[in-house]
Amino acid sequence: MQKNQTTYNFFINSLWAMLLLVVCAISACKKNLSGDSFEDDKLVVLAEITAGDSVKIPIGKTIKVENGNLIRFEKVNDATVTLTETNAMSWVLTPNYSQQYANNPTSVFTNKKRFKSNTTYKIEINHPTLGLVKAMTHIPVLPRLLGVDTGSTRHNNKEVFAANITWKDSLNHEEFYIIEAVKEKVKNNHFYFYQGRRYSYDTPQGREFYETIKNTPGIKILTDTVGLGKFTRLNLYTEDGNSENARIDKLTNPFRRIFFSDPVFNGGNYTTRVYIDKHFFTDPGQKGRIRLQLKSVSKELYNYLKLYEKYKTDFGSVPTSQLISPSGNLVNGLGIFGGSARRERIYYFDILL
Length: 353
Known about the structure:
Blueprint: H1 2-29, E1 43-50, E2 54-65, E3 70-75, E4 80-85, E5 90-95, E6 107-114, E7 119-127, E8 131-139, E9 144-155, E10 158-168, E11 176-194, E12 197-200, H2 204-213, E13 222-233, E14 236-238, E15 258-261, E16 269-277, E17 288-297, H3 299-314, H4 320-324, E18 333-348
Parallel strand pairs: 1-18
Antiparallel strand pairs: 1-2, 2-3, 2-6, 4-5, 4-7, 5-6, 7-8, 9-10, 10-16, 11-12, 11-13, 11-15, 11-17, 14-16, 17-18
């Protein structure tokens, strides 16, 4: 549960920053644009729904301030949110006021259900003043990850961690793949068991008690690695000319995500190599583990994140027509409601004491 929650927070905060950039650009350009140039407040949804994760949908709204010259965002708690699955089963989501969401830029509507792979979902958000917002997406089947071979090498005169990722594409479906990596900050909890009860060795009381029973047969200090919910996105490098990144920017530059659509290798096995700068593994203040992910995602999420990559690398070349309407799939709203299914490999490089 903690893993899903922290991954969700990292994705949402990243997309929220991008949407803020887009909306600010819209606001700045408003006097020079024709047509619908963001004249009305909108509901905003930023949701990557992932197979296996519990249901969490972030929802906010845009608010014009200072006579409409600036845009800011507010939480939304007065909407009715309904999620419908392929088989027509529907659930009502409710705003979650727990502390874990207190610092989120949006309200978070939740349900105890979990998303399934190879399933279509429809969301309807009915707001008393902003109207009805709808979207639909499909969570693909889990990607068929065949293997990941890793090692150290040099790339662009840097010491890097290299990963050869091999997967098998489906012959009968159009697939969209994304590779990404994050470093999750972790800590080691130290503990021991005595007479069937667990004690923490990390507290003064636990250490003091341990000294009194440490010679008891079978007593030993154990370690449990726990994620802290803090992530650093790791820039990736690729030399693969078949990647969409080759059409986004120069391949000598780093990327936040690597993109592949399947026409090049439809129905076959495909191997690509990505590189991660090793300096992320050596910062003593950022000790943690690397999460390398291969995702199969819905087309609308793929296009949205690809535009996000474009904004971050070459914002000035994005046409103003795209600034007016980022390539999301919300009817009468802003943002994205997209599906994903992921395979993941976890690597430890830091010495965790």
